[in-house]
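Sat 14:20. Reprocessing the chain from the morning session after the first attempt stalled halfway. Input below, unchanged.
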Amino acid sequence: MNAKRIYRLYTEDGLAVRTKLRRKIARRARVPAPGATQPNERWSVDFVAARLIDGRWFRVLTVVDQFTRECVLLLADSSLTGQKVALALSLVVAKRGAPISITVDNGTEFASKAMDAWAYQYGVQLNFIRPGRPVENCYIESFNGRLRDECLNVEVFFALIDVRDKLERWRQDYNQVRPHSALRDSAPAVFAAQWTETVAPAPEPVSVRPAKLAAGNSLELLS
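Finished this time. Tokens:
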């Protein structure tokens, strides 16, 4: 039916389509998030999705260290809830320690009560990017592109166990071997080790104090 005719009939009968009024939200100036200055200080987290050979979807939780560009975690599962994400991050924190902050989008998994409780328990700040602005989480977006081009779009996945095995092998190669242009063509794990050796404080020299003379005893130094 012609849209103009429908509009004319609605007007003649005095009908009108109710439109929902949008609330005006006060605009706030965007404050750029500070960059990471050391390893394990700030992480970026996101999801990517792919299919098994039989057409079933699976999701991959990706976690990247913003300073060293290391892939901290690749977790594949048919579904990833806020509780599963919190549990997986707890296992990583047990090995590496907790970061100061994690940059995430506004997905329901990250805004869940489980993630809120996890962040409170470990004292981690969740930095949510603005909706529709993935560039504000550029570290993980760049990593997800490499993961898709070099692994997800290349490999054939038969089952979840096969997905996890291939993702872990790719992660090890990415961290240990693959050069990164932002790290002066060093692999992320190599760069992290070099940074630790450079910044690690040198051991303080042990000062030896001369023994005090016992009271009542006089010692003469022979020249």
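The two ends are 119 Å apart (CA to CA).
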